[in-house]
């Protein structure tokens, strides 16, 4: 019912109704003034009726054509937007997926996610976001899903599992959307492995420099200590019998 009674249809019907009422009121009064002869008035009423049919037909056609054109433009814009989104989603260099907010099942994944996690698209679509988490992280995951109500959510750092069982750190950002009529979330996963390795290497270098500095300082302090004077004079020999 809502599809039949929409704003464009109501606008066309109301406009046609107003046009018909104004046509009848104006043309009837005009004919009574211009054509006082009754037989001729009847004839002109017939002409007026045919003219009304022609004008109203053209009017309805123009209104419907305008409505159809605007609807087509809207559909074309929506299709273009969806195509742009799909290109951005599928060709994004970072792993991305859409999951169902109710079941947590994967609804769509991009190629980067397939490469990063080792699962095929078909395998992903038979899984849920629970399946790419270590078992010990599932309570935290379920709590986060239950508590997240913001549209745009920066979930922070998590651990994910590849198909081969390796665990790696990721940073998660997500946003709510409707996908194929289902309430879901679009997720972007940023692999933190290289950053963590760089941080560990930098920390190790800092530790090495700190130890080297401490050792150098200790050696310099030892060199500054005064040596005992007895070490600079020969010791007397003990006489032998």
Can you offer a commentary on this structure?
This protein is of the alpha+beta class and 241 residues long. It folds into two domains: 7-88; 93-195, Beta-Lactamase, CATH 3.30.450.20. 56% of the residues lie in helices and 17% in strands. It has six helices and five strands, in the order ααββαααβββα. The protein has helices spanning 7-34, 38-90, 111-117, 121-125, 138-147, 193-224; strands at 96-100, 106-109, 152-161, 167-179, 182-191. Strands 2-1-5-4-3 form a five-stranded antiparallel sheet. The model has no long low-confidence stretch (mean pLDDT 83).
Q: Please report which band the strand proportion falls in: under 5%, 5-15%, 15-25%, 25-35%, 35-45% or over 45%.
A: 15-25%
Give the tally of structural domains.
2
DSSP E strands, number = 5
Query: Which superfamily, in CATH terms, is the homologous superfamily of the largest domain?
Result: PAS domain
Briefly, what CATH class of the largest domain?
Answer: Alpha Beta
Q: What's the total helix number?
A: 6
Helix content: 55-70%
The rounded distance between the terminal residues' Cα atoms is 132 Å
User: What CATH architecture of the largest domain would you give?
Assistant: 2-Layer Sandwich
By secondary-structure content and strand pairing, the structural class works out as alpha+beta
Elements, N to C (H/E)? HHEEHHHEEEH
Task: Return residue spans where pLDDT drops below 50 for at least 5 consecutive residues.
Answer: none
Mean pLDDT: 83
CATH topology of the largest domain: Beta-Lactamase
Q: Work out the radius of gyration.
A: 41 Å
